[in-house]
Amino acid sequence: MHRKLCSSEKWAQTTKDLILPWTLDGVDLGDDVLEIGPGYGANLRVLIEQVPRVTAAEIDEATAALLEQKWGDRARILHADGAAVPVPDASFSSVVCFIMLHHVPTAAHQDRIFAEAYRVLRPGGVFAGCDSQPSLRFRLLHFRDTMNTLDPSGLPDRLTKAGFTDVSVQRHPESGGLRFRARRP
Q1: Mind listing the pLDDT tens digit for each residue in 70-108?
Q2: SS3 readout for the chain
């Protein structure tokens, strides 16, 4: 059920109309963006229309192959863990991730993703993203699936420990989801 939802046109439209505008409101992505964990590409298809260069790092090999088939002519697709992206330091003007961190099985692995986002960002670059928070519907959707949600109160410290400054975490007034922004000094 979860995979069906995330690969649907309805989800892609929700992403375009609601999720990305709220998450990226006021964020300057620059000219070269890395998306960590693009899944089926709902966010990727919006980003390639907004930014000159987009790279997507997808951990699942079959999903990365699908993304390459569909978007490979407009974005660079890497089959890679977001905690170990095979690019040089300071490669990107921004790094983004949308509603995927709860799929990362441990907080330690999430922290490695934060550290990697810091490593691949240029000085002054922004790390921005969003994720869902627990609810009955969200738990049911993730039955027999990884669901390791972020603690909004602890996230600023975790991002600061990765090296970021200007960290902010906000909750959506209706959905309760969170968005974050952090800068590499």
Answers
A1: 999 999 999 999 999 999 999 999 999 998 998 899 999
A2: CHHHHHCCHHHHHHHHHHHHHHHHCCCCCCCEEEEECCCCCCCHHHHHHHCCEEEEEECCHHHHHHHHHHHCCCCEEEECCCCCCCCCCCCEEEEEEECCHHHCCCHHHHHHHHHHHHHHEEEEEEEEEEECCCCHHHHHHCCCCCCCCCCCCCHHHHHHHCCCEEEEEEECCCCCCEEEEEECC
137-183 pLDDT, tens digit per residue, is 655 565 666 667 889 999 999 999 999 999 999 998 888 789 999 99
**Cα separation values, 64 from 33, 117, 127, 128, Å:** 17, 19, 22, 22
Q: What is the pTM of this model?
A: 0.91
